[in-house]
Amino acid sequence: MKKIIFFDVDNTIYNNALGKIPEQTKKLLHELSLKEDVILGLATGRGLKKCEVIDDVLHYFKYKVLMNGSYVMKNEEIIYELPMKNDDIIEVLDMIKGHDLNIGMVGVNDEAVNYWDERVSYGLKALRGISPKVDAEFYLKHKVYQLWMFADLESQIMQVAKEMPKFSVFPWHQGGADFTYPHVNKAFGIGKCLSHETDFQLICVGDGANDIQMIEIADIGIVMDNTRFEQLKEKADHIAPHIHEDQLYDFFKKLNLV
Predict the structure, then answer these.
(1) What is the DSSP code (8-state) at residue 84?
(2) Backbone angles phi, psi at 131, to 5 degrees
(3) Which tens digits make up the pLDDT trace of 166-186?
(4) Positive or negative CA dihedral for 36, 193, 78, 105?
(5) Which domains, and CATH codes, for the chain?
(6) How many Å is the Cα radius of gyration of the chain?
(7) How far apart are CA 22 and CA 12, in angstroms?
């Protein structure tokens, strides 16, 4: 039986604070890529262009579940995509006019915000490699696969989310979150990949709120100790060392997964 291993990017294989992939993580991905019975996949909220921050290891991944499952690739082939409807984006832009919020629109290779202020700067500071343009009509020229929302407090975002039943929300920190259609998430995208495979054990590794569903469907769910979401740890089979400790290879070795 082969192993199919999906990794989140930010603060799972990529240390956002240091702007690099930890050395043990590089070693782990290299050794896993050499195994005939292992298939590697990415599952991230990033678009394809913004995965360049892990360019050194990107070629190891057969599958890429991008923008939280709304765009899925097998090697260089698109096997699934679900752009948002313009009417839904317009509805969101109209709704937030009564709130002090910023909206981001995410495409495959580019993204934009409706306006720029300190909240956007703070929200994107940790997500290296992402510098959106300011263009409130970005959706008229590009396919948009997910939305961002920025606020002073996470509670403001969660309150607005209640008024937007067309979308699910995945918070990343105290003032930023991803919005997707309710049925679209990393587990959904991984399912599109698994339809191309047979006889496998699924292993998923992540740290964010948008990783909960993929940890739930995994045969082995691994959560990074640096997660701030206790629900994720509760659902995990194993807790991997904090990304700053750079011990992911040793951890996989201990579990006989490499």
Answers:
(1) P
(2) -140, 85
(3) 999 998 866 789 999 999 999
(4) negative
(5) 2-81+184-254 (3.40.50.1000), 86-180 (3.30.1240.10)
(6) 18
(7) 10
